[in-house]
C-alpha cells in the first residue's frame, strides 16, 4: 500500500555517486520515515551485520573477473526474534531507529484491566433500597383501622340521638306506579294472526309514490258545518270492500263486512284535524281529535259474525291524505292505527307492528285519539292515546325514542297535515262508529 508520493530515485543514469570498489558489496540504503507512524505498530528491526571482509584481489579485466564465493551464513548473537516481544514491551533495544514500527508500551489491550467493562460501583439496582417503590406508610387497606374505614359509623354520638335518621324511602319516590317505558325494540316482522302478501305491500308502496301527501285543505262552509256538528261522512272503498256501511244517526255509522272481504280502509271527510282550523301554532290552543267504535257480535242482520272473540279484524286509526283504500291503516306513510286481531300498534309499518294492547273483544267499545300541543321552537308535540270501555289503556308520544334501523319516519302525523278518520276491515266483522261526543264512553278535553 502506498502512503504518499513516490520519492526521488537514489540511483539513475545521471547520478555521479561513487560506486563500490570491485569485490565489495554496496551498503544497503535505509528507508526510514522522519517519525514513526502513529497508526501502525512499531516493529523490531533486525541488527545489521556487515559481510565478512575478503582478501583484496588485484584488478583484472572484465573478461577475467569472477564473482567471489559468498561466505556461509552464521547465526547472529542474541536471542531469536520470537523472544524479542518481552524485551520490546519492557525495554526496547537502544539500536531501534525512530523509523521502525514497534508496539506501544504496556500490556496488550486484552490484558489491560483498566479498559475492561466492569459494573458500576455499588449494589445492583434490584438491591438498591433507596430507589425501590416502597408501599406507603401505615397498614394496608385491608387492615385499615375502624377510624378510617368508610363502612364504619362516624365517631361521636349516634345520629339517632342528635336528629332523626334519614329515611331514603321518603327521598326516593315509588316508581311502581309510573307507566312502563316505551317498547323501543318490540317490533314484529309479521303478525301472529293474519298478514297480507308481500305483493300487496309493494303495490301499496308504489301507490304512495305515485300519490304524495297533499297540502292542508281550505275547508268550505259546508265542511266546517260538518265538523261543528260532528256529522262526519264515511267513504267506502270502491274496490275490495264487500259489506255495508250505513249512517244510522248524525255522527253514528253502522258497518259490516263479509268473510271474503280483503284489506280495505274506510276514510272520513272532512278531516277531523284541519291544519288551517286546529293547528296549535295558529290558535295557541291544544287540540284533541277522537272517536269510538263498538265491536258487535251475531245479530239477525249480520249472520256472518259469530260471538267468538277470535281474530276481530278491525283497525282504528288516522291518516293523512291521500291513502290507498286497499290497504289497512298504519301500514304506509302518514298513517297510524291499532289493530284488533293482535292488539299491535302500527305507525308507517308494513310488517308486524309493535306490541301495545290486548286483542279486541266483541261487545266492547274502543276509542283512539290524538292531542296536538304547541311547544317552544315552533314545534308541535303529538300524543296518541287508546281507550277501552271508556278508560285510557295505553298511549305513546309520536316522537318517542325509536329504532333508527327498523322504524320509518312519522311524516304526515306531526300536525302539519290534515288527518282523517281511517277504519280498516278484513274478512267478517261488524261494528258501530261513534263521532258524536255525547255518545262517547270516554270524555276527552280540548275536543
Automatic annotation (TrEMBL):
Keyword Transmembrane helix assigned: yes
Comp. bias (Pro residues): 69-82
Gene Ontology CC annotations of this record: membrane
InterPro entries assigned to the protein according to its UniProt record, in alphabetical order: B30.2/SPRY_sf, SPRY_Ssh4-like, Ubq-SigPath_Reg
Alphabetic keyword roster: Membrane, Transmembrane, Transmembrane helix
Biased composition, class Basic and acidic residues, residue ranges: 1-10
Location of region: Disordered: 1-165
Localisation: Membrane
Name of the protein in its database record: SPRY domain-containing protein
Amino acid at each position: 500500500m502506498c502512503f504518499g508520493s513516490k520519492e526521488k530515485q537514489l540511483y539513475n543514469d545521471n547520478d555521479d555517486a561513487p560506486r563500490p570498489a570491485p569485490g565489495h558489496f554496496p551498503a544497503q540504503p535505509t528507508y526510514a520515515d522522519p517519525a514513526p507512524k502513529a497508526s501502525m505498530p512499531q516493529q523490531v528491526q533486525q541488527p545489521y551485520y556487515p559481510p565478512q571482509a575478503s582478501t583484496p584481489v588485484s584488478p583484472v579485466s572484465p573478461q577475467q573477473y569472477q564473482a567471489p564465493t559468498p561466505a556461509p551464513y552464521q547465526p547472529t548473537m542474541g536471542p531469536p526474534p520470537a523472544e524479542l516481544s518481552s524485551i520490546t514491551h519492557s525495554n526496547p533495544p537502544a539500536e531501534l531507529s525512530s523509523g521502525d514500527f514497534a508496539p506501544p508500551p504496556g500490556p496488550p489491550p486484552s490484558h489491560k484491566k483498566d479498559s475492561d467493562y466492569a459494573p458500576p460501583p455499588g449494589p445492583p439496582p434490584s438491591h438498591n433500597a433507596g430507589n425501590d417503590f416502597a408501599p406507603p406508610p401505615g397498614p394496608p387497606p385491608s387492615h385499615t383501622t375502624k377510624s378510617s374505614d368508610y363502612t364504619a359509623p362516624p365517631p361521636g354520638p349516634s345520629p339517632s340521638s342528635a336528629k332523626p335518621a334519614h329515611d331514603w324511602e321518603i327521598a326516593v319516590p315509588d316508581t311502581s306506579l309510573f307507566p312502563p317505558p316505551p317498547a323501543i325494540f318490540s317490533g314484529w316482522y309479521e303478525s301472529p294472526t293474519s298478514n297480507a302478501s308481500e305483493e300487496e305491500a309493494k303495490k301499496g308502496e308504489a301507490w304512495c309514490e305515485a300519490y304524495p301527501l297533499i297540502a292542508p285543505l281550505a275547508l268550505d262552509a259546508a265542511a266546517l258545518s260538518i265538523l261543528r256538528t260532528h256529522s262526519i261522512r264515511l267513504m267506502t272503498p270502491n274496490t275490495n270492500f264487500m259489506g255495508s256501511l250505513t249512517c244510522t244517526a248524525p255522527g253514528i255509522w253502522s258497518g259490516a263486512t263479509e268473510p271474503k272481504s280483503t284489506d280495505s280502509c274506510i276514510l272520513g271527510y272532512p278531516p277531523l284535524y284541519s291544519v288551517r282550523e286546529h293547528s296549535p301554532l295558529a290558535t295557541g290552543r291544544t287540540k284533541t281529535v277522537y272517536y269510538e267504535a263498538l265491536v258487535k257480535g251475531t245479530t239477525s242482520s249480520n249472520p256472518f259474525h259469530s260471538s267468538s272473540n277470535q281474530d276481530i279484524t278491525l283497525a282504528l286509526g288516522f291518516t293523512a291524505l291521500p291513502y290507498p283504500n286497499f290497504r289497512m291503516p298504519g301500514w304506509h306513510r302518514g298513517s297510524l292505527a291499532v289493530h284488533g286481531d293482535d292488539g299491535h300498534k302500527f305507525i308507517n309499518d308494513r310488517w308486524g307492528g309493535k306490541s301495545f294492547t290486548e286483542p279486541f273483544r266483541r261487545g266492547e267499545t274502543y276509542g283512539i285519539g290524538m292531542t296536538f300541543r304547541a311547544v317552544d321552537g315552533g314545534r308541535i308535540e303529538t300524543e296518541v292515546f287508546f281507550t277501552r270501555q271508556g278508560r285510557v289503556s295505553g298511549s305513546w308520544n309520536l316522537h318517542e325514542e325509536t329504532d333508527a334501523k327498523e322504524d320509518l319516519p312519522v311524516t304526515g302525523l306531526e300536525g302539519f297535515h290534515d288527518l282523517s278518520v281511517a277504519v280498516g276491515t278484513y274478512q267478517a266483522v261488524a261494528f258501530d262508529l261513534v263521532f258524536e261526543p255525547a255518545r262517547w264512553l270516554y270524555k276527552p278535553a280540548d275536543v
